[in-house]
Amino acid sequence: MSDAAQKMKLGDLAHIRAGHPFRGAVESAPGGAVAVVQMKDILPGGSVDWLSAVRTELGGRKEPDWLNVGDLLFVSRGSRYFAVCVDLPPAPAVCGPHLFHLTVRDADLLMPEFLAWVVGQGPVQRQLQQAASGSLQLSVTRQGLEALEIPLPPLATQRVVTDLAAAAARERVVLTALIQNREQQLEALASALAIGQPTNLT
């Protein structure tokens, strides 16, 4: 089997739907049974900040599109568009209307983690920039998402890529912590020098 990546339309690979149709702002209800993920709760590093998600109660007779493990949330507004995978929600959860809710149609064909990664890469980002429209704020429509061409290598290749991406993310966290520690050390050194304290650099 060839390792070459074929290309498919995102609409053929994933079911894409808009977030829950709240009328107006999401009203917080202390002790609410439902968590609502909004744009503010999406971390660019690739996760959902469940602690910041508003809790509320949902009305209506229609069964909501609940978020499940392995679903994706797509940020369709702003200067950079990206997707994150949903981990285990702490409660029944939906996403707000300014996010798109994606579910991979065939997990034997496409890994959700790979889709989230590839959406953030240059070739797909360029497609998204071209598809974006709007006068006050650029955004991507569902039709624009469905038309995206997604490279689809074999699952084995997808696993290797996602493992590498996860390793890079872990390394980024470690390096960021090292840089912050060094900056704090230099700030402490500068403060000591300013008041004439010994620095013990030798």
Describe the structure.
- 33% of the residues lie in helices and 20% in strands.
- With 202 residues, the chain is α+β, with helices and mostly antiparallel strands.
- A four-stranded antiparallel β-sheet has the order 2-10-7-8.
- The protein is globular and about 70 Å long.
- The mean pLDDT is 88.
Structure classification: alpha+beta
Topology order in helix (H) and strand (E) letters: EHEEEEEEEEEHHHEH
Helix content: 25-40%
Unreliable stretches? none
Largest β sheet strand count, sense and barrel closure: 4 strands, antiparallel
Beta-strand percent range: 15-25%
Number of helices: 5
Write the topology of this structure.
Layout: E1 6-9, H1 10-13, E2 14-18, E3 34-37, E4 42-43, E5 47-48, E6 54-56, E7 72-75, E8 82-85, E9 93-95, E10 99-104, H2 112-119, H3 122-131, H4 142-146, E11 149-152, H5 155-194
Parallel strand pairs: 3-9
Antiparallel strand pairs: 1-11, 2-10, 3-6, 4-5, 7-8, 7-10
Short account of what is shown:
The chain is an alpha+beta fold. It has helices spanning 10-13, 112-119, 122-131, 142-146, 155-194; strands at residues 6-9, 14-18, 34-37, 42-43, 47-48, 54-56, 72-75, 82-85, 93-95, 99-104, 149-152. The radius of gyration is 21 Å and the shape is globular.
Supply the key terms.
5 helices; single chain; 202 residues; 4-stranded antiparallel sheet; 3-stranded mixed sheet; globular; alpha+beta; 11 strands
